[in-house]
Amino acid sequence: MQDIKRFLANLTNHPGVYQMLDEKGEVLYVGKAKNLKKRVSSYFSNRSQDQKTLSMIAHVKNIDITITHNEGEAVLLECNLIKKHRPRYNVLLRDDKSYPYILITNLHSYPRIDIYRGPRKKNGLYFGPYPSAHSVRETISLLQKIFRIRTCRDSYFEARTRPCLLYQIDRCTGPCVGLINKEAYAHQVNLAILFLEGKSYELIEAMQTKMEQASFALDFELAASFRDQISRLRQIQDKQYVNVGGEGNADIIGYAIKAGVICLQLLSIRGGEVLGSRAYFPTVPLHSSEEEILSAFITQHYLNHPSHIEAIPRQVILNTLPIDSNLIEQGLTQQSGHKVEIIKPVRGEKRKWLLMATTSAQESLVAQLVSKTNVAERAKALQELLSLPHLPKRIECFDISHTMGEATVASCVVFDHAGPIKSDYRRFNITAVTAGDDVAAMRQVLERRFKRLQKEGKFPDLVLIDGGPTQLAAAQSVLNALNIHQVLLVGVSKGPDRKAGFESLHIANQPPIHLPSDSLALHFIQQIRDEAHRFAITGHRQRRDKTRRQSTLEMIPGIGAKRRRDLLRYFGGIQGVAHASLDELSKVPGISRSLAERIFAALHDATV
Prior knowledge:
single chain; alpha+beta; GIY-YIG endonuclease; Nucleotidyltransferase, domain 5; 5 domains; five-stranded mixed sheet
């Protein structure tokens, strides 16, 4: 690396893989390229680079180049090298398990149905792959309910002398004790196979034929059984059928990010039917772009394991096209043996399913963030950052929300080391402050909150204030006035362009703290701050909408819903009230002379 210009000048234009190495020879980053010379040279150009690239280049002492025969080989080699070296500047997918399948052991006289992982060495019929074991178990449970196929192991099956509990609850036909003959059982297995092959229409037609035959033979019990199966299958068919093109063979990837955590939700559709979905939480280096994350996820997910290669769909649908999408398409096409497209839909059915996958990713991300293990790790990191004597037992965060000063609402959310304590959340309607004065609003909510806490005798260990030094100083002055000194105050100000990951922490008499965007302590603070913001803005919108829906009469002190109704009924509407004289207003039951004067003054914009 002493003469980078000479090194780059001698680089080949062939496709291949490059590895960035540090001074110890450890791999920092692995990348693929259609043209090695152009791609590697881009790292050392005069164009502005992102912070991640600048940080990596500062540690690079050598570059190892591997030339491949074509772009597809480059994609596969990159994936294998990332799996082997786990470089710290690459996006890493932590889970490389094989896909689960449904296995029907068709060599047995009474075949069983089971979940299966690993190389397909066992004799039997395999269906899938499914995105998760949960999806497989759901499908097996469904097959048990409709076709009543056994799931017990052969050793258990041979040892039975009486039917098990599954027979008692109509999940099995009891073949272990001869309660169904082989022909009838084999028929149910064949129907299940049709269902798993996605041949729902053929399956229903076959069952309709059987139902009619049973009806003609006056076997109404059997006919009713087929009728119930058909009804259940039609319901499933309506719910599962999806028109996504590509022969109904597609994976849809939803993307969500919050508090420094990335979630990718994979929704699998095969044969026009939804097989299920699964959430992934990859390890992502600082300042990685969405395009880069999606690129890494697609290659590592589909090429990390032989069973994943077999499951490569014809279409991968997502909201943002990854880096080198054409190169990835070629690699997946070469490995799968069929054409693979990576597409970004803008309308239609595919767009609808993409929005569903994105919503699922957001929900999975929220669940991940509030999981007890995750929160405990973050709380521990926050304790170490702020040098707290123990894990914070109670954290309160305050935020202000309004629209141009209208309907100002403050929120107080409460967390402990296990997550949110929603029963302790509070909202405060802010009054008697200058519209839009967030500092005065913060001072008011803290005064009201801590006067109440003084009476109750319980204080939080830590209070987070949404704002910088100005808001922090206002909060500190409130606590000093109330003679409360045992509470640590921390201001959380947003970074440039209000971008997540660039927040600054402010503590009285200390310089601002700037944490790396992958800090667990920062993630915990972001999570709490975002929850306070959500709770505040929800309350503000409710108050604002209620105010805008309010009758003019209800805005007059002393007029509630009942008196408003009485006035409108007496005068026949708001116009009648507006045109009424002071004496006429006084005649309304329940309206005193002084209240009538207030009503008259309010409606005529005058004093009486």
